[in-house]
Amino acid sequence: MAYLVNGITQVADCDVLLTWAQKEKAELSFKKLSEDRLTTKFETSAVEIQAILQGVLAELSAIDTVIAVLPEGPTKVSELKRKVKLEYKKFLLENRKESY
Question: In terms of pTM, does the model score above 0.70?
């Protein structure tokens, strides 16, 4: 930003402008730091979400195999419920991944 120095006639005028410039610089530095932290947070979160999603996908694959060989009964019902929960978790993770 350009500063007009033609109107500066006293030391106090210069001090005011210097103080103003320092405040502006501090605000911009803080804004940059905040944006850098948010970017780092989103990058880290995206990696974590992807890792968790891969685990859920592996678990879903395994549970499909187990369900296929289980006879009808309470264990199969329990595993089917577990599969629904995993599918919901997968859905939530995919939505979070898209938002990042």
Answer: no
